[in-house]
Design brief:
This protein is of the alpha+beta class and 224 residues long. It is built from 7 helices and 4 strands, in the order αααααβαββαβ. It has a 4-stranded antiparallel sheet with strand order 2-3-1-4, with helices on one face. β2 and β3 (183-193) form a beta hairpin. It comes from Podarcis lilfordi.
Length: 224
């Protein structure tokens, strides 16, 4: 079990194949499993590994909340496909016997053999996954959009928000919710495809209407 070396091309390819039918490393919500693998990856995957890149950018958006995500971090080798050899371990106590090499070292040959096996298993895994229909990961968001004051035209504010169009974004119902001192915020629902629309993009485009919008927060986030 495991992804192998997530700094290597083969490790990232395995992660990309693993995420082709998943939104998260474990379960249906971001967790410490995602944070552990995210930290091991360390940098955005290349664009051609779009499943891994979509997941990486999504988990990156939880940077400020990562300590509060559910779950407990486990060893990196505990995550990933069960039919792939874990190459992240450091070995056991029996290594002491291997330190005495009476007939010379075969380390390079063993490394090549391990690499060949890993590539074969990666190819088998990707072949198996390619036969399954791809699932489109979607999320339902509830956004709080706050105006500057009680004189802000909330009808115009909502019109600006709904004017934002993108592939994978569908706006839903909305309502005005009092927040105090005569000020009301816009609470609006939307459904997004995770690999096409992120919360960072929504926040950037909504707050661009700076004449009406003071801030935007994600009030609720649920996988569909």
């Amino acid at each position: 079990m495991g992804f192998g070396d997530l700094k290597s091309a083969s490790g990232l390819q395995l992660l990309n194949a693993f995420l082709a039918s998943r939104s998260y490393i474990e379960g249906y919500v971001p967790s410490q499993a995602d944070i552990a693998v995210f930290e091991a990856v360390g940098a955005p995957p290349p664009p051609e590994l779009f499943h891994a890149l979509r997941w990486y950018n999504h988990i990156k958006s939880f940077d400020k909340q990562k300590a509060s995500l559910p779950g407990v971090k486990k060893a990196l080798g505990k995550y990933g496909p069960s039919d792939v050899e874990d190459s992240t371990g450091t070995g056991g106590d029996s290594k002491d016997d291997d330190d005495i090499d009476l007939f010379g070292s075969d380390e390079e040959e063993e490394s090549e053999e391990a690499k060949r096996l890993r590539e074969e298993r990666l190819a088998q895994y990707e072949s198996k996954k390619s036969k399954k229909p791809a699932l489109v990961a979607k999320s339902s968001l509830l956004l709080d959009v706050k105006p500057w004051d009680d004189e802000t035209d909330m009808g115009k504010l909502e019109e600006c928000v709904r004017s934002i169009q993108a592939d994978g974004l569908v706006w839903g119902s909305s309502k005005l919710v009092p927040v105090g001192y005569g000020i009301k915020k816009l609470q609006i629902q939307c459904v997004v495809e995770d690999d096409k629309v992120g919360t960072d993009m929504l926040e950037e485009r909504i707050t661009a209407f700076e004449d009406y919008v003071q801030s935007m927060d994600v009030a609720a986030f649920n996988k569909i």
